[in-house]
Amino acid sequence: MNRRTFLKTLCTVTASATLFGAQTLAHASETPLSFEDHDLKDYLHNMANFDLPHTGDIILKNNLLTTLNSTLKRLKRIQKSVGFGNFSILSFDETLLYAKNNPSIESFTKKELNFLDYTFNFDATNYGFYGKRPIDEITSQVSKKDLVKISGTGNFLYRGQPYETYKSIKKLLGKKVYLTSGVRGVMKQFILFLAKASASNGNLSLASRSLAPPGYSFHGVGDFDVGERGLGAANFSSKFAKTETCMRLRNQGYLKLRYPKDNMLGVRFEPWHIKVKNFRP
């Protein structure tokens, strides 16, 4: 099955917008995107309301929504079994082997494996996500020898620039700031993306406005998220931008944002996301 056939059988799509035209704007990857005025207006409206469904969204229906949910449930059982921290760095091959060797989880079905494969390789621009893809292979692995486990967070960071950046942030802000999300392997990004899509009735485009699709997350190659203690889930909302933590990080030059406000990448504003430039594990 090629990707065009997959798109037709996979999704219900209504009036997909083509974002090309006369007006050119720069986006975070420094590649220009072109918009007609009406398309730009629609785009900005969709991003201002990123957590709502919009015309043109790709939405799973019927059997494929069932497959999404069964795949997600299996991934959640594995995550619960191995622990959240360990699951963050579990590879695709390790995940399949772990499921196969545990009777309480059982092997992924052929439909689930096909779903994972096509979802990973699917061109995310069809969702309206225009970020770069830093991970090309679903079997990409995170080498444990390259990681540092951050005490009290359940998260890992890559040694070198990511870890040194985090230590500098901790030195600046102390206990007030903490690591909310570090290294994410392919399977961790899958579970986050699929959980958001499942909660949104199979809307993959809506999920991509909040979470990079599998293969597109820079958490796999060095980026990480920070939060302010006491803020809870609001650390992943625009409220974080108004905190003293965020303001001090900005003033000290740490917030070279991967997804800035009003970006042209099809991703909501993420002021908590620390961009680690020019680092490859």
Which keywords apply here?
alpha+beta, three-stranded antiparallel beta sheet, 10 helices, 12% strand
Give the secondary structure arrangement, pairings included:
Elements lengths: L2 H8 E3 L9 E4 L5 E4 L1 H12 L9 E3 L1 H21 L1 H4 L4 H9 L9 H12 L25 E4 L4 E4 L2 H13 L3 E5 L4 H14 L4 H7 L13 E5 L15 H8 L21 E2 L7
Antiparallel strand pairs: 1-4, 2-3, 5-6, 7-8, 8-9
Structural class comes to: alpha+beta
Count of separate DSSP helical elements: 10
* Share in β-strands: 5-15%
Mind telling me the C-alpha Rg? Answer: 19 Å
Helix share, percent: 25-40%
- Unreliable spans are 1-9, 11-32
Description:
- The protein is of the alpha+beta class and 281 residues long.
- The chain contains 10 helices and 9 strands.
- The chain has helices spanning 3-10, 37-48, 62-82, 84-87, 92-100, 110-121, 161-173, 186-199, 204-210, 244-251; strands at 11-13, 23-26, 32-35, 58-60, 147-150, 155-158, 177-181, 224-228, 273-274.
- A hairpin with a 5-residue loop joins β2 (23-26) and β3 (32-35).
- α3 packs across α6 (110-121), α3 (62-82) crosses α8 (186-199) and α8 (186-199) crosses α9 (204-210).
- The longest helix is centred in the N-terminal third of the chain and has 21 residues, at 62-82.
- The model is unreliable at 1-9 and 11-32 (pLDDT under 50).
In short:
The chain is an alpha+beta fold. Helix content is 38%, strand content 12%. The chain has a 3-stranded antiparallel beta sheet, with helices on one face.
